Amino acid sequence: MSSIAAIVVTYNRKDLLMTCIESILSQSAGKPDVLVIDNASTDGTEDSVKMQFGKEDRVKYINTGENLGGAGGFSYGINVAVNLGYEYLWIMDDDTFPENKALESLLKASDLLGGKFGFLSSFVKWTDGSPCEMNVPKVSANWRSCIDMQFDNHMLAIESASFVSFFVKSSTVNEVGLPIKEFFIWGDDVEYSQRISSRYMSFFVYDSQVVHAMKSNRSTSIVEEMDEQRIQRYALLYRNKYYIIRNAPLRVRIAYWMDIRNIIKDICKNSNGNKWKKCKIVIKSSVAGLFFKPAIEYVH
Fold first, then answer.
1. Looking at the structure, do residues 130 and 197 belong to the same domain, yes or no?
2. Strands 96-98 and 202-212, how do they pair?
3. Which among 9, 74, 165, 207 counts the fewest CB atoms within 10 Å?
């Protein structure tokens, strides 16, 4: 068994998943095992994984039995990986394609830091090579504390990052707990990375690069959303956002509500349809965030 588990959460995207797994198996260093965490896909994902990788001992398929969302899938997969005894966890979505030296660069950064880090995050590119807008990390306010070491090694201290190529030690997971599964989608990676970086310096590693094969390189926006079936999902976004800033300074919380006001104005002025429904979702879900208090679970 490898010391590294690449945890890939998937749901009904078997073609992307196959490319993701191939990219992980072809890494230049680390030889990670691949834990496929399937949120009960209905597109033949299990058959495809077993047909293509059934003879590969490094690929392990696990079905959650129901759709737990991205947050639930990552919480489930991380818990499984820690219990299986892996020392390091490399977390990503099924549409993440790590370049050949992505893991090697993360391991070099880990060695350089003497293992003293909270998490490491890769440079996430879109399919055209430009930075992926949905995966830009937030720079830490303490980034100046070790500026020469960071810049000389193409690294930068960060506060939060996405789960698109997120590298963390099992020992850290045991200490800080699991991602909050109740988030379902949106914001679980921000909350989790901030929970870690509040205790340990964490870093963006430029030389570790991955491609995030999203359909579009644009940030999510309820104002521009045209798909009626997707509009309701934004209730999770605004509820989860308020949970993340609940304990922030008063000025941050005030800024949040000012932003909500501006979003309502933008919907009324620029949205092409479902204006009342969108406004209702933003307001109700933001208020729901005041009362959303899921417990942090630990490895069990």
1. yes
2. antiparallel
3. 207
**Same domain? 255 vs 172:** no
From residue 24, alpha-carbon distances to 8, 204, 280 in Å are 10, 19, 42
CB 202 within 8 A of CB 162: no
Q: What's 35's domain CATH number? A: 3.90.550.10
The domain boundary, picked from 212, 237, 262, lies at: 212
Helix, strand, coil fractions of the chain, as percent rounded to 5: 45, 20, 35
What whole-number distance in Å separates Cα of residue 7 and Cα of residue 33?
9
Beta-carbon contacts of residue 20 (< 8 Å; ≥ 6 apart): 8, 92, 93, 94, 95, 96, 97
Cβ neighbour number for residue 287 with a 10 Å cutoff: 14
Query: How many beta carbons lie within 10 A of that of residue 293, not counting itself?
Result: 9
Say if CB 193 and CB 122 are below 8 A apart: no
pLDDT digits (tens, 9 = 90+) for 59-97: 999 999 999 999 999 999 999 999 999 999 999 999 999
> Is residue 272 very low, low, confident or very high in pLDDT (cuts 50, 70, 90)?
confident
Q: Please report the beta strands in the chain, taking only residues with DSSP state E, as ranges in sequence order.
A: 4-10, 33-38, 59-63, 88-93, 96-98, 119-125, 138-139, 155-160, 166-169, 202-212
Q: How far apart are CA 79 and CA 35, in angstroms?
A: 12
The two counts, helices (H) then strands (E), for the chain are 11, 10
CB burial class (10 A; 0-12, 13-18, 19+) of residue 272? exposed
